[in-house]
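Example for tutorial group B:
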């Protein structure tokens, strides 16, 4: 099995453990080819690809070590504030953060606090997993959301690693898969002592939970600090934009950039000087996005090239990671992507925290409860398609009072979610205490 870009998986839980191990062992030639293919596509860092084989690229720090694993950038961002709280309370502790995507690795390189280090998660082959665990010797392991890899879980259990599943979301399809293989589910989750689903929907009869503590924590993504931005970057971008009306299409996925371009084309005559900012979820698609937008006659400036935003710029394409904090502070109106296509949505609370009127499509399964709370607060609007997005963006640009009211409601709704972190910490503190007390 191979972790993909921003993938969520239960690995081979529908297979017996011996069969899954045999398949992942015998598939080595295919896995090696797949790694090479990912390197060529920019989905692996060539200088760090050995980490995917369980070969560490940095020295293990002395003393107790807690391992946290998050699938990709959104999950990784959600635990930064948790990492900070754990380290401040435990001065002798270090944290190893693993993720599986290039974008998340780059973000962790700039956002992790002292005594926290990043490595890529090893691919779920027994040999590579054992190499990883033998080197890092984690005292506890916290898995974020629902990317569960059988060999990693079972080998961690054999080593007595105390484990917890945090923000343990389970889609309908995942739940159905678990129910089809209850024995494998029990085996896979057998070493997990704490399971914290984000809401009641995910707290139901989870196969394999046994006698483990299962308690609703609230969504960790609600407890994250606002995304950062420097004063210098804010001043530079605001001066480049001037007093032009602006809206943002953030964390967009394939197809949504074209929709944003169509919104701009449809509104530009009615909204003189309009600037549309597009920040794709995966910046490596920027060449294709730029070409597609230019074919419709739009003039594109790209952040990665240092292009100036001038009077002729229609689209400012922000093909970089770690800049949403800057963009949400600049744009009062933000469409949050992954929601007009059946992806499940992206974290709209990040926009709400920074005072944006939030727009999103109907496909927000990953953030359904957040979307509902923002809608109830008058902070967000669900739009069905590109035509409705055009109409709503146009209305908000033409009615600043309404946009400001939505933005203020969003900020207030987001501020009420900070108690989630205390709930999570109360459950995992005993595991942390046990980890720090383990004999070296």
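The residue assignment follows.
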């Amino acid at each position: 099995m191979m972790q993909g870009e921003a993938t969520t998986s239960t690995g081979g839980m529908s297979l017996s453990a011996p069969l899954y191990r045999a398949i992942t062992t015998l598939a080595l030639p295919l896995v090696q080819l797949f790694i090479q293919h990912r390197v060529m596509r920019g989905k692996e860092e060539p200088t760090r690809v050995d980490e995917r084989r369980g070969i560490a690229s940095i020295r293990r720090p002395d003393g107790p070590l807690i391992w946290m694993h998050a699938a990709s950038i959104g999950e990784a961002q959600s635990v930064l504030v948790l990492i900070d709280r754990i380290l401040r309370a435990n001065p002798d502790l270090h944290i190893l953060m693993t993720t599986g995507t290039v974008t998340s690795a780059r973000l962790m390189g700039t956002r992790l606090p002292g005594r926290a280090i990043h490595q890529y998660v090893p691919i779920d082959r027994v040999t590579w997993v054992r190499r990883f665990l033998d080197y890092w010797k984690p005292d506890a392991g916290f898995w974020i959301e629902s990317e569960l890899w059988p060999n990693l879980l079972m080998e961690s259990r054999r080593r007595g690693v105390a484990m917890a599943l945090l923000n343990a979301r389970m889609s309908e399809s995942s739940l159905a898969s678990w129910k089809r293989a209850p024995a494998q589910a029990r085996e896979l989750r057998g070493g997990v002592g704490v399971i914290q689903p984000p809401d009641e929907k995910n707290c139901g009869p989870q196969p394999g939970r046994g006698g483990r503590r299962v308690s609703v924590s609230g969504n960790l993504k609600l407890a994250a600090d606002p995304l950062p931005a420097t004063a210098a970057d804010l001043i530079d971008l605001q001066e480049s934009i001037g007093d032009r009306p602006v809206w943002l299409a953030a964390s967009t996925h394939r197809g949504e950039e074209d929709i944003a371009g169509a919104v701009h084309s449809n509104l530009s005559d009615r909204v003189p000087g309009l600037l549309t900012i597009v920040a794709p979820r995966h910046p490596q698609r920027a060449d294709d996005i730029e070409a597609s937008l230019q074919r419709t006659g739009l003039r594109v400036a790209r952040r990665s090239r240092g292009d100036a935003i001038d009077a002729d710029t229609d689209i400012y394409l922000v093909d970089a990671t770690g800049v949403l904090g800057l963009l949400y502070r600049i744009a009062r109106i933000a469409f949050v992507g992954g929601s007009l296509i059946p992806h499940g949505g992206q974290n709209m609370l990040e926009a709400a925290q920074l005072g944006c009127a939030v727009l999103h499509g109907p496909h927000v399964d990953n953030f359904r409860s957040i979307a509902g709370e923002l809608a109830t607060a008058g902070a967000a609007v669900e739009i069905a398609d590109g035509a409705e997005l055009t109409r709503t963006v146009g209305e908000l640009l033409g009615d600043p009072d309404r946009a400001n009211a939505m933005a203020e409601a969003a900020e207030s709704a987001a501020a009420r979610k900070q108690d989630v972190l205390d709930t999570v910490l109360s459950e995992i503190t005993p595991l942390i205490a046990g980890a720090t007390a383990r004999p070296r």
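The two ends are 33 Å apart (CA to CA). Compare this with the pattern of hydrophobic and polar residues in the output above.
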